[in-house]
Amino acid sequence: VQLQASGGGLVQAGGSLSVSCAASGSILYFNVMGWYRQAPGKQRELVASVSNVGSRNYADAVKGRFTISRDNAKKTVYLQMNSLKPEDTAVYYCNTVPMRLGWGQGTQVTVSS
User: Fold this and answer.
1) Least enclosed by CB within 10 Å: which of 53, 56, 91, 106?
2) What is the mean pLDDT of residues 36-59?
3) What is the predicted pLDDT for the residue at 40?
4) Averaged pLDDT for residues 42-62
5) Phi and psi, residue 3, nearest 5°
C-alpha cells in the first residue's frame, strides 16, 4: 500500500486547512492510521491517530484544534486543522500507527504569522 498526502498550502495564523491522505490499497486491515508531521530541523512526530472503531488520540500540541477521520471505503484519511499556529508549519504525512508502510509523499503546510 502506498500513501499520498495532499491539500497542504499557505495559510495565515488562525486559519484552517484540511489535508487528505489517499492509499493505493485498502486501509481496512490497518487498525490505527495516523497523521505525522516533520518540521525543519526536527524529528517526525505523531500528531493524531484514529482506529477502525473511531477511537481518536491527539498530541497535546494539537488537541482541540485538529480533527482526524478516516473513510475506509474511500481508502482515505483526513486531518482538519483549525486555529493554525506558525509552529504547525511542517510537512504532513500519514501512515499506520505504529509506522509500517513507506512514508510516501507528504504535503507542506505553512502557517504565516
Assistant:
1) 53
2) 97
3) 92
4) 97
5) -120, 140
- What's the pLDDT band for 105 if we cut at 50, 70, 90? confident
- Per-residue cell: 9: 498550502
Strand order in the sheet with 66-71: 3-6, 17-23, 76-81, 66-71
Question: What is the side-by-side strand order in the sheet with 32-38?
Answer: 9-12, 107-112, 90-96, 32-38, 45-51, 56-58
Q: Please compute Rg for the chain using Cα positions.
A: 13
Please report the DSSP string for 52-72 in residue order: TT--EEE-TTTTTTEEEEEET
